[in-house]
What does this fold into?
Amino acid sequence: MSQLADKWVLITGASSGFGAATALGFAKQKSKLLLGARRLDKLQATANAALQAGAGEAHVHVLDVSKTASVETFVAWAREKIGPSAMLDVLINNAGGALGLDTVATGKDDDWETMLQTNVLGVLRMTRAALPLMLKNPGSTIINIGSLAGRVPYEGGAVYCAAKAGERKITQSLRLELNGTGIRVSSVDPGLAETEFSVVRFKGDEERAKKVYQGTIPLVADDVAEAILWVASRPPHVNIDEILIKPTDQAAIHKTYRRLK
Ligand SMILES: NC(=O)c1ccc[n+]([C@@H]2O[C@H](COP(=O)([O-])OP(=O)(O)OC[C@H]3O[C@@H](n4cnc5c(N)ncnc54)[C@H](OP(=O)(O)O)[C@@H]3O)[C@@H](O)[C@H]2O)c1
It folds into this structure.
């Protein structure tokens, strides 16, 4: 039996992309899933697919990580689902994304605030709320989803890069703060991956989103999900601090091979 069987796994942003693929990955290991995001219909579709794939349980609840009240309601619901005799085993802070590619000179307050609210404050809020469900559970794991953008800046990415650099520092601080508890803290940092990420970034402009991946072979959500599952399934004394995972075509943030005619 898989060591992830019957483990309680909470995933934010499980309605699409990495979050949905990760939910399916844990489902195949017979984990019990607590899934959150804002779009309940998509979240429910993930849960249905997870149950089909073998999840021990799969529950959904609306979650907006940019709002403290929503996070607290969600975690209170998760606590009830887990029950008094069990604890949370894996917390995956995945919800997030980018908005626009504006330079600092032309950036919009709303975009900046949303990026910082979800990618930075969302991780902090979720972790603060969920930690009481993990503190007496050595071997449990917090996995934050960072980005290549948190390590290397690019033009038009100032706020998203800052947000993911923030995620990186939160992950590193948390690992220090939790030292001695047995809780592992990791960051999985993908490069170019084709999900709904670019459609969201370009506010529904699918043509513009497609161009991001044109002529190149990007990561897909399952590639990142596999890395997340691997991190969560190491023995309890092993902490994978960070994983940088890029497509072979992406040698660096400014050097992506494209088969253009
Ligand atoms: N794709 C890439 O190239 C790439 C590379 C590196 C890192 N990342 C990071 O990976 C994570 C997942 O992105 P993805 O590529 O899988 O993109 P995606 O397909 O757009 O998924 C993003 C997920 O986050 C959720 N979300 C967004 N804002 C939220 C909020 N305020 N509250 C709760 N959930 C929220 C979305 O659900 P709802 O809209 O239903 O709320 C969705 O489930 C993000 O943190 C992203 O920054 C992506």
Observations:
- The radius of gyration is 18 Å.
- The pocket of NAP is lined by residues 12-13, 15-19, 37-39, 42, 63-66, 94-97, 118-119, 145, 147, 190, 192-193, 195-197, 200 (CB under 6 Å).
- The chain has one domain: 8-256.
- The chain is about 40% helix and 20% strand.
